[in-house]
């Protein structure tokens, strides 16, 4: 902890002097003082990546307003104004951008040192949220900590801290990555502990994303294919048991298989059927922005889990394909930044960036699949677009880490133009 304290002090001193004070970074087994707090304007950043992220954020902002403007007509939201959710989303966006800006200033070398401690902190928050009268209950799930200006969801933070911890873990265990018990078992135990806490909320969707992030980083970190096959098999068995032993989850699966049946259409399959109706109404080019009928209290949670269905209704197939292409491009670009960092010998930074790509791609894939009826209904938001303070905040912080990785890559290649 004393070394971390010294690093924090040096970083803060560098910010106040606006100088190029350096923190060491390991490259090829040696330490270099190339990772600095030099302002981004000197070396630039990935403008295309920022542009696509801003496009998704602004489109999401418009859709949050479009999907919630009529909610006050419902008795459940009678006390809300038409712009209530827009204002809350703007507040979350502002906080997220501020946090992202601060995170961008922190060198990856310091994040690597802090990774285990941040993971422990997130575990403590998962415990705190389960305490009665502390964690906020919504729809029979205890997932939120009320913080006044926003309700914070620790499970969203855990996605980020698991990513950092797994990346740091694989760097530390690189020499024994071929030894299953020494390399994999501790990480599996850590993810298992997270899973126990998340299922107590319950939040199976977040656990699924976290498990995929951890397994993806293990694979990218060098764990061999046979080990990955074994881990994947164990994960499938675990999730099958979770579904089979829980009546609610089992009913959702059956509703997904036949949502139009008389029993499911007004029950567990209600959201899916109305999502499909919305997308079907949109046809090729949609009914126009603001013209959705399903958002008028027919499709529950249209501003969170089922925003893509309203996009499909208002912008048609063209709009849905545009969302798909934006996420595909974003994922590919972030993966490229991660690969570049690894080529430069910056293993931790590369794994962090690629872990963010896995996270965004998988969560977007699940959300889109649910909206299209290709996957069972699961409460996962569309990254950067859906309403939700904690998710938006952590997504922006994750992208800030990616931009920091790219920034440090450019520092090691000073001849590269932004």
Write the layout of secondary structure elements.
Layout: H1 2-17, E1 22-27, E2 30-36, H2 47-68, H3 84-104, H4 108-128, E3 136-138, E4 141-146, E5 151-152, H5 154-172, H6 180-183, H7 185-199, H8 204-220, H9 225-244, H10 247-257, H11 262-265, H12 270-282, H13 307-343, H14 347-371, H15 389-412
Antiparallel strand pairs: 1-2, 3-4, 4-5
Helix pairs in contact: 2-3, 2-13, 3-15, 4-5, 5-7, 5-8, 5-14, 5-15, 7-8, 8-9, 8-14, 12-13, 13-14, 13-15, 14-15
Q: How would you summarize this macromolecular structure in one to three sentences?
A:
It is built from 15 helices and five strands. The chain is mostly helical. It has one domain.
Explain this structure to me?
- With 418 residues, the protein is mainly alpha-helical.
- The protein has one domain.
- It is 64% helix and 6% strand.
- It is built from 15 helices and five strands.
- The protein has helices at 2-17, 47-68, 84-104, 108-128, 154-172, 180-183, 185-199, 204-220, 225-244, 247-257, 262-265, 270-282, 307-343, 347-371, 389-412; strands spanning 22-27, 30-36, 136-138, 141-146, 151-152.
- A three-stranded antiparallel beta sheet has the order 3-4-5.
- A hairpin with a 2-residue loop joins strand 1 (22-27) and strand 2.
- The longest helix has 37 residues, at 307-343.
- The protein starts with a helix and ends in a 6-residue tail after the last helix.
Ranges where pLDDT stays below 50 over 5 or more residues in a row are 9-42
Structural class: mainly alpha
Distance between the termini: 36 Å
* Helical run tally: 15
The arrangement of helices and strands along the chain is: HEEHHHEEEHHHHHHHHHHH
Q: Report the principal-axis shape.
A: globular
What's the Cα radius of gyration? Answer: 22 Å
Number of strands: 5
Report the mean per-residue pLDDT as an integer. Answer: 83
Provide the spatial order of strands within the biggest beta sheet.
3-4-5
What is the helix content?
Answer: 55-70%
Portion of residues in beta strands equals 5-15%
Largest sheet: 3 strands, antiparallel
State the domain count. Answer: 1
């Amino acid at each position: 902890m004393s070394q971390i304290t010294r690093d924090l002090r040096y970083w803060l001193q560098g910010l106040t002097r606006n100088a190029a004070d350096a923190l060491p970074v390991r490259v090829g087994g040696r330490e270099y003082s190339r990772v600095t707090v030099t302002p981004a304007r000197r070396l630039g950043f990935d403008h295309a990546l920022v542009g696509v992220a801003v496009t998704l954020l602004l489109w999401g902002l418009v859709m949050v307003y479009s999907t919630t403007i009529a909610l006050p007509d419902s008795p459940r939201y009678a006390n809300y104004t038409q712009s209530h959710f827009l204002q809350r989303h703007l507040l979350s966006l502002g906080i997220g951008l501020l946090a992202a800006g601060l995170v961008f200033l922190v060198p990856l070398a310091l994040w690597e040192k802090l990774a285990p401690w941040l993971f422990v902190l997130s575990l403590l928050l998962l415990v705190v949220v389960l305490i009665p009268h502390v964690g906020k209950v919504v729809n029979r799930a205890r997932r939120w900590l009320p913080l006044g200006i926003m309700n914070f969801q620790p499970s969203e933070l855990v996605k980020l801290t698991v990513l950092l911890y797994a990346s740091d873990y694989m760097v530390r265990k690189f020499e024994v990555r071929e030894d299953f018990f020494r390399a994999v078992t501790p990480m599996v135990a850590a993810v298992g502990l997270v899973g126990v806490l998340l299922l107590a909320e319950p939040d199976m969707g977040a656990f699924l994303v976290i498990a995929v992030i951890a397994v993806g980083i293990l694979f990218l970190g060098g764990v061999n294919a046979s080990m990955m096959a074994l881990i994947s098999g164990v994960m499938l068995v675990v999730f099958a048991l979770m579904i089979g032993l829980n009546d609610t989850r089992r009913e959702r699966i059956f509703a997904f298989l036949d949502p139009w049946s008389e029993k499911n259409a007004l029950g567990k399959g209600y959201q899916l059927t109305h999502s499909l109706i919305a997308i079907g109404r949109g046809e090729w080019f949609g009914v126009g922005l603001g013209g959705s009928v399903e958002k008028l209290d027919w499709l529950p949670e249209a501003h969170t889990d089922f925003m893509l269905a309203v996009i499909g209704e208002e912008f048609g197939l063209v709009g849905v394909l545009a969302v798909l292409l934006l996420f595909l491009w974003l994922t590919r670009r972030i993966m490229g930044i991660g690969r570049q960092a690894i080529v430069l010998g910056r293993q931790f930074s590369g794994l962090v960036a690629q872990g963010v790509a896995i996270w965004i791609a998988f969560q977007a894939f699940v959300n889109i699949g649910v909206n299209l009826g290709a996957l069972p209904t699961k409460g996962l938001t569309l990254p950067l677009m859906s309403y939700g303070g904690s998710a938006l905040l952590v997504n922006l912080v994750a992208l800030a880490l990616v931009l920091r990785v790219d920034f440090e890559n450019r520092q090691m290649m000073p001849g590269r133009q932004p």
